[in-house]
Prior knowledge:
It is built from two helices and eleven strands, in the order E-E-E-E-E-H-E-E-E-E-E-H-E. By secondary structure, the protein is mainly beta. It starts with 21 loop residues before the first strand and ends with a strand.
Amino acid sequence: MRTLILTTSLALMTSPAFAGWALDGDKSTMGFVTIKNGETSEAHSFSGLSGSVADDGTAEVSIPLASVETFIDIRNERMREFLFKVADFPAATVSAAIDMAAYEDLAIGDRTTTEIDVTVATNGTEADYFGDISVTRISDTMVEVATTRPFIADARDFDYEDGVAKLRELASLDSIAPSVPVTFNLIFTK
């Protein structure tokens, strides 16, 4: 699911002023909301995110799909096995590249918003997304990147339809929406 998109914030560290930054997985959060039977919403998350930014400005973030947390053990297991297929695809990768000249002069305490293009790769497929994020310079060695509104990820973009159908069957549900809103609050440290 496109919670993966959120990690694209690493791309914000691509200018010389932001080069050498890494995602702090312990302080970062990424979540998504599923909707079942057309009316029941449930919040979930991923943990253990990692990533880096190369000198050429290419950002890449890895999301360990086995870290999915739905707060129901059997559902965690089913999502790992039938949706994400973690035995074959243990991680999703998000990559982006951004012209960071606009961020070089961001002072401590300042926040700005920007649009971002990202590529998400998982389950042997890739999809491109576009969204809005905010960037806040917390200190000389810390930057926060967060969604200004949720990204909308669609399971069909990653050939997850069979997995969603299997989850629906196992849980005896009438429906599980294929699109999910995704949010994140990511902390990058130098």
